[in-house]
Each structure stands twice: as structure tokens, then as C-alpha cells.
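Entry: Pteridine reductase
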Amino acid sequence: MATALITGAAARLGRAIAEELHRDHQVVIHYRRSAEAAQTLAANLNARRPGSAATVQSDLGSATDCDNLASAALACFGELSVLVNNASAFYPTPIGEADEQQWDELMGSNLKAPFFLSQALAPALAEQRGCIVNLADIHAEKPMPTHTVYCAAKAGLAMLTKSLARELAPQVRVNGVAPGAILWPEQESEGYNKEQILARIPMQRSGDPSDIARTVRFLAVDAPYITGQIIAVDGGRSLNI
């Protein structure tokens, strides 16, 4: 059975992706601080199919962290076919208030970690003729007010997706999913007013984490001739930003 590593898989979109891929994959659930949530998810999945889920704790701040996570993930089941770079920091960085620590955190989680983790796992993925799916953002193309650093990081991730797709072909496919209004931030900020956003979405509603999870699974399982693409799953919001 194929194995998938999902970063930031203890909650929110990462959890939904892990549950969806678990339908026909063994899953490695990466977490940073959410140990209890990760272990509960693994226990639930193992109750459905014994020995099918494992957890790995790791920071993602450095290339060494990513190398260590890659080694730990491979040790869980002995191989890896799918890497989902989902872990992400998200918060506003208004010009005049942003600092270097915020730059490092937002660039680190959204761009640096996906690069170094993909690099570390490229040989294992090539051996399985596997794939990488990156969680991008519709705001990689259309900037969100006061979120300059986050948007820049996601724009970098979009280009990283395309560059890796070219460099790792034909052994490894690399694609991205760009969520729209799926899960709302815990704190509302400028440029992210829920009512205003919903009013501008052609589908007139927010999406569900399962919409993202099913798209990730499609790219991982049912799209052998798709690479270098980023699919917006946003109810048409990117048409009307």
C-alpha cells in the first residue's frame, strides 16, 4: 500500500487530507506542537485499519529539520509515494509593523520547508514514481491587504511547484491546490472580512475541508498525466477578487 506524508496534519485542512488519503494509503501524520490531536487522529485511523497511520513530530524551521523529518517519515513504513506540503503560518504583516521574525516564520513554513522537504524526499518519491502536492493559495496571484509577506511566500510556493514539476519529471509529479474561503482564520483582520468575502464568491458560500482533501487525492491518485498545475478550489472567488 502506498504511503503519504502530510505536514501539519493534526488539524484543519491537514487532518481532512490525512483522513481522505487514508482511504487507500498509509499515512504519516506530521505535527509540530499538536501532539494530542495528532495521536488521536492516528488512533482513529488505526482503529479503522490497524497499522495504517503513524505520527512524527518535527520543527520545519531549518533544512536539517526537514532532513530529519524525511528520515523519520521514511522509517515509519519503509517507503513514501506522496508528500503533501500543508503546514503553514498565516497572519497579517502590515507595512511599517512587520519584523524579521515574522518574515522568517512565514517564508519558512510556506516556502523554505516545502523546498527542503521536497529535496530530501525526491529520491524516495522517484523510486515510487510518486508525487508532491503543495497547498498554495489563491492570494499567490491576487494580494490580500496587509498580508504582503504571506502572499509573497505563497507566490514563491506556486513557482516552486512549477519548477519542481519540471526538474523532477518524469519520475515525480508536482502539483498544487489553492484553497479559497474554506476555513476562516480565528481572528478577523483587514482584508479578510467574512461577510464581504462571501458576498463576492460566485458560488455564494464557503467551501468545506473535504473539497480540498478530495482535490489533493485526485492529484495524488487519479491524475497521472497532470504535473506543474495549481488548481484553485475557491467557488470562483479568484474570478472576483
